[in-house]
Amino acid sequence: MTGQSETGASGAARLEVEGLSLSFGGLKALSTVSFAAEPGSITALIGPNGAGKTSMFNCISGFYHPQQGAVRFDGRDVTRMHPPERAALGFARTFQNIALFRGMTVLDNIKLGRHAHMKTNLLQALAYWGPAQREEMALRAEVEERIIDFLEINHIRNMPVAALSYGLQKRVELARALAMRPRILLLDEPVAGMNREETEDMARFILDVKEEWGTTILMVEHDMGMVMDISDHVVVLNFGQVIASGLPHEVQADPHVTEAYLGSGDPAALMARLRGEGPDTGRNREEVA
What we know:
Number of helices: 11
CATH superfamily of the domain at 15-90 and 181-283: P-loop containing nucleotide triphosphate hydrolases
CATH topology of the domain at 15-90 and 181-283: Rossmann fold
Helix content: 25-40%
Strand order of the largest sheet: 6-7-8-3-9-10
Structural class: alpha/beta
Distance between the termini: 35 Å
Shape: globular
CATH architecture of the domain at 15-90 and 181-283: 3-Layer(aba) Sandwich
Oligomer: single chain
Order of helices and strands: EEEHEEHEHHHHEHEHEEHHH
Strand content: 15-25%
């Protein structure tokens, strides 16, 4: 899908990560990482705990600034842009730990997602007349008629977030991200902590966002069943480096991926890696986020 869809997306974008390196003092979190998320696709970023996934997400969304390399949005270098600037371009993100305003209603939480695109100035907003009122009513109509119906949360729209189950809170967070009209949607462990039914519902919604909104999706997730079912492309990180990249079934069969998750079974090799010796000397690092 290209152009603007009826749901408000303004066209998928290509995301490129080129030679990204990130260090915290002497701690190397990422080392010359490169990959791309193609327009309108679902790319999964996976790896064992401490592989560098969260650091990568924070670099892409602008919370971290890498020492080397670039993040490109449809060919435009956004590496040094701040998070609000990236949001205005079409970046949206959900978080591993739910980041909603628990005392506010579902509807108000979702509407906050549009803040980066609002054109009303402070005085107009305070007076709440003319352009401010029209913009607010248009936003509410879009949220209610499209996003809330799309994610099947009409029955909780006026409830406070604190009263919702964990699975519904994750769905509300996705709704808030969609209110930003994303061209690139970053999903940080969207089904973590969910039961099987909630996971299946979320997987369906993510696929629908791809198909109906035409949004490029980059997802960090530990549920390998879901990753292999819905992803178009999978990138595997370990010790801050890309060790495999390709179609889900190709990555699943890669022996390097199996070793990263399960180990080689050789105690001597494990001890050498922990000491930073042997062929993996360049991987003597840990993820800090």
